[in-house]
């Protein structure tokens, strides 16, 4: 079974989110139903990927960076997060309490260490802070993981 993980930007503009969702679903359809998808389930790329994995017949594994991770998510996203977490076949819980940039960086590293391919919904820009998408892409490339960047041409955040 192929194992894909997601890293990517949050708070995507609606038109970018639609294009990203379409691209993620196309990649998953190409691979068929024997896919395990790993995601931290945050708003944006993580949740789009998790929903696409489930919708295409794959198996979802959730990675929870910290005990208080859910508290740091936007209130409007928590119902989606809860539903995706409940749908996960396996939940990887990291040993952190606070949802800090360090916990997020470690969650990203965990995703990389447990996947065959990293899908990165990334605009190609340098990191805005530790633990972001660019850091996880750099880590994956350093570990010689296959990285597929998904970013609609001409899109901005």
Automatic annotation (TrEMBL):
UniProt-recorded name of the protein: DNA recombination-mediator protein A
Source organism of this protein record: Streptomonospora alba
